[in-house]
Specification:
The structure holds 2 protein chains of 2 kinds. Chain A is mainly α. Helices cover 53% and strands 10% of the residues of chain A. Helix content of chain B is 41%, strand content 15%. In chain B, the strands form 2 sheets. In chain B, strands 1-2-3-4-5-7-8-11 form an 8-stranded parallel beta barrel, surrounded by 5 helices. Chain B is globular. Classes of the chains: A mainly alpha, B alpha/beta. β1 of chain A pairs antiparallel with β6 of chain B, so a sheet runs across the interface.
Chain lengths: 281, 287
Amino acid sequence: MSLRDAPPLATLERWMQTVVMHPDGAEPGVRSAAARRLLPRTAKDLGSVVLPSKALSSVERLDIYAHMYYARLLEVLENEYPTTRRILGDDVFRRACRAYVHRHPSRHRTLNSLSEKLPAFLARHLPRGNRSGLAVDVARIERAMEDVFDAPRAEPLTAAGFAAIGTEEWGRVRLRVNPALKFLKLCYPANAYMNAVRGKGKARVPRPRTTTVIVFRRDFTVFRRDQEPEQFRLLQALAAGRTLAQAVRGSVARRRGSADELAATLGAWFRQWAADRVFCQ
Amino acid sequence: MTLLPNRWKLSDLGLGVGLRTQHFRHITEHWPAMDWFEILSENFIDTEGRPLWYLDQIAERYPIVMHGVSLSVGSTDPIDFGFLDRLATLAKRVKARWLGDHICWTGVAGLNGHDLYPVPYTEEGLRHMIQRVRAIQDYLERPLVLENPSTYLTFASSSMPEEEFIARLAVEADCALLLDVNNVYVTCRNHDLDPLAYLDAIPYEHVVQVHLAGHTDNGTHCIDTHDGRVIDAVWELYARVQEKTGGRATLLEWDAKLPKFAVLQEEVGKAAKFRRDLRVAARRAAA
């Protein structure tokens, strides 16, 4: 190649990226319209861009990068979504992830955000059915676990902090919810399913049933916990900045039972939340 | 045998290993003998969770060096100054002795392939990279320590060998080098080059650190997999570099099929022999 024929650096980089990110590998990548708009080459005249080695053709050398691109990113997704993968099976999961990486390539310097759209992608592209529905909900939990793992830190509200709130202030108080906490309203009992898989090593695909789950970090460990619907709404209202009185009125007003029973229920919820360090300073 | 100091007089930190998640607990429970640790910068810049909590403790006791994979110095996309700010913040937090990345690009058009793609070794590529390295160094107000990557292809437009490109980049951009002797071996195998000639072309006053690692030999080509022990041929290249420099901070990278920490200690400990031999030779020469 003469220097006059050498493609500009920007063109060469865009071409190589187009080729190695092609979902079917380097050879289809070279033939793709997107690559040919940048550098009109075929596998036969590829040597004018990428030299062959003694052992490998030009396209085989490009294919090393194409293979590594998907292998590396699929490995990340497999590590982040072990239960989703288990539900779908290796083949379906890998095909879905490959399609996802092609549709949503990384735009970040780190890999933390790579899978942020995977649950929604699975919801759109998996065939309908209980197994797929459960997989989507489990994927939402597994993604929330990733988010919570890396979320900002906050000092938890201690028992002394709670005690310092005067009785007369309780109605007006606004409690701050841990930033490392996610709310999930799901179509399946996905958290119970994950617990069963973890405990017994296997579980049946359950029937659809609305469940509410919080995923949170305590002492740098991520936890998942099912919540009653009113409990979930109450915590959401507190997280939205409502006073305790407003939050209670908006979430448990229609709950059946006596005032004493309601007080006992609220007491139990708050004790659990305090133990989980759900509130922060 | 005399010590050839690096341009910036950055310390020879001794022998270190890459800090990996699987070893966090072992390190913070046993505080094992290790001169220093290298971190993968990107694993710590977008988190306030457990990895950073461990790193804070480890940085209190060991020198830390930051080594990244997403700076994309060779890319034709604009420089991401926000990313540089995040690197600088982490460097301050862990009191990083130095920070660096690779002589490569990782993506264009806003994408990141999370791989180390080779640049064409052309005058245009060199000018582009020199200008970017200077801009990044000016912004960070510290030298950038750039590593020679393992490469698996050669662009037909390349007009100079990789080692000449690297040497000119180091001198003209006035940046530091991290010489990965396993990458030298892998690249030379993949491109039918002589690794000793490669090493002879390196400006050693710019080299502040050396990497050691294992790789996978597929027969037709080698892949830099960081999944095993260092082979003898790479140890020979390491010995040559130590001879040329009089000793440089040395780090073992082991990322896949990660063994117990004691195996890493044993493997990187092999480098001590070359460094001892070097000191003995220096004393003899002085006598």
